[in-house]
Design goal:
CATH superfamily of one domain: Oxidoreductase, molybdopterin-binding domain
Number of strands: 25
Oligomer: single chain
CATH architecture of one domain: Alpha-Beta Complex
Largest sheet: 5 strands, mixed
Helix content: 10-25%
Structural class: alpha+beta
Strand content: 25-35%
CATH topology of one domain: Sulfite Oxidase, Chain A, domain 2
Number of helices: 8
């Protein structure tokens, strides 16, 4: 096993009179192919927004004077305001009879999507969360990304059992009813697949943030701390340096978890997600929650935890989810998801329809703690401005950031760079590859770049 190589520390999206953005559902160039862009001046926020709106309105007036297509209603007024719509003049629908609420039909395009470039075996598959369409930090359960190694199951909770064995005084078996009688906690945490952004390692510029970063979600999880169950079984916390978590699906997913994480009380045996029971595709009725650690260790359909004195080196940690280093060695048990961020709007596949004010927004996260700061650049990293971190900012949880930006219609290169509370700074691709080489698949946390072209189209690019 190779030693772990750590890198050293080193705003309104649609419509109205400001810049307008089209969120299309779906380039790869180097720095030499990108036009020079310049940093915008710094202003007070109120003056900045006022000036951006004024510029947008001036552009609208010029468009109207030239006789070009005009998105603003004519002087007679907007008929959508002057004429009452049907829903303001009639009776609405009764209480939903299907028993479970659904999104508006106008939001039908907001959904998880599979990539045609990945494994097409239905039972070994992945779907990506639509990050570009989400607000705040919580991922709705029905849009949570999926990764399956042997397909998903809807397990009968009355027959499901959870066992604790190994270096314990009294091996124990719990039913779901017994687990749910115990004191529980609820916490917000992100979960990210170790292969998230993996295609970018091979210089594959997938078109949208959904495909580049969409193996990422964040939920409120409810369950029992694993340490509580180990203590009930009399686990030897001195000799027991690790636990082995095993799932009940056909792949028998098994992962080694350091006892240090378990003893901290952070690791949960969870049955709840976003205020309801887990969804079947997310491990119903029971899964492990290991905050800050790659998603494969969040074992679904959890049926057993074994306490031991050394790592198990199972098939899913000796062959998969390991990093091939430049010297030919494999970096194993590299579970922590390092500090990372991505701008979700504007992002690949979207189109800026007008010059003017935009809210640049995105997500930041770190497996080592809280996000401390996020900087945003609109000129490919030449100049950086500090974004606003929106509350709450929580431990090992997604953090939403925002930055005011006035687009002048010229090409721009948008990036975000996060720092966590340990002082770790998200690296560039150049810095990451100096340490990790070019043959990796997993644990890519490099800075993402989006090119806004002069026609407003946003492309995925990668700067060396």
């Amino acid at each position: 096993m190779a030693a772990e190589h750590a890198l050293p520390p080193s705003e309104a999206p649609e419509g109205v009179a400001r810049g307008r953005l089209r969120k299309a559902p779906e380039g790869f160039i180097d720095r030499a192919g990108v036009r020079a862009v310049f940093a915008e001046g710094r202003h007070g926020r109120r003056d900045f927004i006022r000036g951006a709106f004024a510029a947008a309105l001036a552009g609208t007036a010029a468009t109207r004077a030239s006789g070009q297509a005009n998105p603003v209603p004519a002087e007679g007024g907007d008929p959508n305001i002057l004429n009452l719509p049907a829903h303001s003049r009639g009776l609405g629908q009764p209480v939903a009879t299907d028993g479970y609420g659904k999104p508006s039909r106008y939001e039908a395009n907001v959904q998880r999507r599979q990539s045609p470039g990945l494994t097409q075996t239905a039972q070994s598959s992945v779907s990506f969360a639509p990050l570009q369409s989400l607000f705040g930090i919580v991922t709705p359960s029905g849009l949570h990304f999926e990764r399956h190694h042997q397909g998903w199951w809807d397990v009968d909770p009355s027959r499901h059992r959870f066992m604790v064995n190994g270096l314990v005084k009294k091996p124990m078996v719990f039913t779901m009813d017994e687990l749910m009688r115990l004191p529980s906690v609820s916490r917000f945490h992100f979960i990210e697949c170790g292969a998230n952004t993996g295609m970018e390692w091979g210089n594959v510029a997938v078109p949208t943030v959904q495909y580049s970063h969409g193996m990422l979600s964040c939920s409120e999880f409810t369950g029992v701390p694993l340490i509580t169950l180990l203590e009930m079984a009399g686990a030897d916390l001195q000799a027991g340096k690790f636990v082995l978590a095993e799932g009940a699906d056909g792949s028998s997913m098994t992962r080694t978890i350091p006892m240090g994480l378990v003893a901290s009380g952070q690791v949960l045996v969870a049955y709840g997600q976003n205020g309801e029971m887990l969804r079947p595709e997310n491990g119903y009725p029971l899964r492990l929650v290991v905050p800050g650690v790659q998603g494969v260790s969040w074992v679904k359909y959890l049926r057993r935890v074994e306490v031991g004195d050394q790592p198990w080196a199972t098939k899913d940690e000796a062959v998969h989810y390991i990093d091939l280093m430049p010297d030919g060695m494999h970096r194993q048990y590299s579970s922590i998801q390092e500090c990372k961020s991505v701008v979700t709007t504007p992002s690949g596949g979207q189109v800026l329809l007008d010059k003017g004010f935009y809210n640049v927004t995105g997500l930041a996260w770190s497996g080592r703690g809280r996000i401390k700061r996020v900087d945003v650049s609109v000129d490919g990293g030449r100049n950086w401005r500090t974004a606003r971190l929106e509350s709450p900012v929580q431990d090992k949880c997604l953090t939403r950031f925002n930055l005011d930006w006035a687009w002048d219609g010229r090409p721009a290169l948008i990036q975000s760079r996060a720092m966590d509370e340990t002082g770790y700074v998200q690296p560039t691709y150049r810095r990451l590859r100096e340490v990790r080489g070019t043959r990796s698949i997993y644990h890519n946390n490099a800075i993402q770049s989006w090119l806004v072209q002069d026609n407003g189209e946003v492309k995925n690019v990668q700067l060396s």
